[in-house]
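Hey, I was hoping to borrow your eyes for a little while. I'm sending you its amino acid sequence along with the backbone structure tokens. Take your time with it, there's no hurry, and the full record follows here.
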Amino acid sequence: MARGEGGEQDELFADVVICAEGANSLLAEKSGLRQPIKPANRVLSVKEIIKLPQEVVEDRFHLEADQGVALEYFGEAVKGMLGSGFIYTNRDSISVGVGCHLEDFLEKKISPNDLLEHFKSHPRVRPLVRGGEIVEYSAHMIPEESYDELPEMVDDGLILVGDAAGLINPSLYHEVTNLAMASGLFAAETVIEAKEKSDFSKATLSAYRNKLEDSFVLKDMFHFRHVIGFLKRHKQVLNKYPDLFIELLVDYFTVSETPKKQVRKEVLRNFRKNIKLAAFLRDMWAARGAML
């Protein structure tokens, strides 16, 4: 449906619609290609753009001219939730935000804005945003289905791309945009091939999925298909373990009159007291299988 300058509406028709509506695509749901979204497989990210003079950005982040930096924070910075806080620099501003599973927001009964304020007040973040002016606030929903949960991507006259197709690499690489760009390219190639045949059926458009499978897009998604499941089953990796290791390191390196040999013994004693070694090793082995 198209709307003119005067408010009049008209319908537009096409042999194929390439749907890039995002993670909460209504067209994908109404077409039956995807089930209604669930809080367990959606991330809600909120972001502020904070304006700062270019020289301040470069000084605070130790940058040379035309350099940039991206930082990511886990654990206490986002209250141990399944997600992260992030900062990345622009030329004369910085982007500051958090992104966590909708399920966690509901369970912890915290709003995205409150979590963002908590993140900005973190001792490592507060000095970086000090004195800046908030010039923009935005929110974005991100899909986090695993490879095994991906929706149907094609139907007669319809192709899903990008977030609408659930294309995201949730591993440490955090790749999204490049997957969306590649899917758009493969969708265009598929439509060109379909037009040459004058056949826009699901069978013909299924070549799109084959192109994704043969590319880095679904090869990487398949390789890292266990990442989200691992983090959901082993949440201690994002809260308990980081907090304990920080506490142990503080104890280990604090200057005192206690002999170092005794300090090491006490640190090891606290480690064994708070973490069962067998459980910790199982978690690390599971992390190896999911992340590498």
In short: The chain has a mean pLDDT of 92.
